[in-house]
Amino acid sequence: MRHALLLPMLLLPALAQGQAPADDTDPVVAETAPTAIPLTEIRRYVAVYNAVKDAYVEPVDDQTLMKAALRGLLSDLDPHSAYLDKEEAEALLDDTEGAYVGIGVETERRPDDTLLVVAPIDGTPAQRAGLRAGDVIIAIDGEPLVSNPNPHTALRGQAGEPVTVTVTRTGEPAPRDLVIVRETIRVNSVESRLLEPGFGYLRISTFQSDTGPQVRRQLAQLTGRGATPLRGLVLDLRSNPGGLLSAAVEAADALLDDGLIVSTRGRLEYSNASFHAKPGDALAGAPVVVLVDAGTASAAEVLAGALRDHDRATIMGSRTYGKGSVQSVVPLDNGDSIKLTTARYYTPSGKSIQARGIRPDIVLRGEAARGMREQELAGHLRGDNEDAGSGPGEVIEGDAAIGRALDALKAGKATARARRRL
């Protein structure tokens, strides 16, 4: 299972354990130094700890009990902060490199420990077995996920081993079992083709470490394939659950000449950052239509928002997921890590996507999916105007949407920077 809604992996140095004392006049150290905890709160924690240790129905060792306390400390903050054991932290790193053993699905953990399927990854066992965005995984190999502290880990294993995934699906009265064979997932995050002479198609399924260079290479191939210059591009971000923010910034930079791409804002100084485009538009201003749906989240929303705010693209599809927060990964001295929400990100116009998502310029209809928006997650960060026009998003599958986007390009309904400059 992939934690693909992670954005940039920043380091909070003063929070990592095992470090030597530092000069408290250092502004970074001072900014991250722990504040005093009231003695009454410490006493309450110790009282609860001892009560569980002494009276729980079965013996609980100190390590297990302390780890449970740490998980609870983070999970009650928001849906994306979490305590990661060593294996989970290593799996998270593997995901960003695009190779791991599993079934190939992006999920979001729910408060009851079940897993909401944000998107099956293109061409993986999960997609081939029929797992859909909006499905809820309630059991793995017959074991309910309720109260399972590591539901994602159960989907990992050895290549070639089958796993039975029990899911509930909107509109179906009973759960269904899907048998999926694990394999080594090597995600090719970018693919492209010519739809017809002069019009290209670029699909980005997730954002990993090599996505940015892949986008530039495939745009170069598209512009060099035809006998005529590229007159328009369909950029497909449907069911793209996000990934590395840096990769989304690189993709946006390939289509923008200049200007702000995204900014992040948090409480700490190094949580506040801005990313700008460098000169050079790979398509020389040819119009772009971006396809989005309820599974378009996080870094994919950053890309869509940047292109629209700069009048570089028209957004077509359904309301996006609305995951507009930044998680930082803090390694601990025992090999475990914590994933902590440290900032929100903002589009070039200063708008937050958190819980609200991006509304398309041209609406397409798809299949309504249960829980496919940040706003529905228990304990989510409150977003700006998140209740305005808060209808649920829809999952849009198939090639019909690509045809609609192509029609919009040919009819001149998409934004073209080159035309605007005339």
Concise summary:
The chain has 422 residues and is an alpha+beta fold. Helix content is 25%, strand content 24%.
- Give the overall shape, derived from the CA principal axes: globular
Q: Tell me about the biggest sheet?
A: 6 strands, antiparallel
Treating each run of at least 4 consecutive H or I residues as one helix, how many helices? Answer: 10
Helix percent reads 25-40%
As for the CATH topology of the largest domain, it is 2-enoyl-CoA Hydratase, Chain A, domain 1
Span of the ends, CA to CA: 49 Å
**Could you say how many structural domains there are in total?**
2
CATH architecture of the largest domain: Alpha-Beta Complex
* Strands, count: 21
Q: Which homologous superfamily in CATH is the superfamily of the largest domain?
A: 2-enoyl-CoA Hydratase, Chain A, domain 1
From the alpha carbons, calculate the radius of gyration and give it in angstroms. 22 Å
Low-confidence stretches: 1-32, 418-422
**CATH class identity of the largest domain:** Alpha Beta
Beta-strand portion reads 15-25%
Classification by helices and strands: alpha+beta
Organism: Arenimonas malthae CC-JY-1
Keywords: Hydrolase, Protease, Serine protease, Signal
Family: Belongs to the peptidase S41A family.
InterPro entries: ClpP/crotonase-like_dom_sf (IPR029045), CtpA/B_N (IPR055210), PDZ (IPR001478), PDZ_6 (IPR041489), PDZ_sf (IPR036034), Peptidase_S41A (IPR004447), Tail-specific_protease (IPR005151)
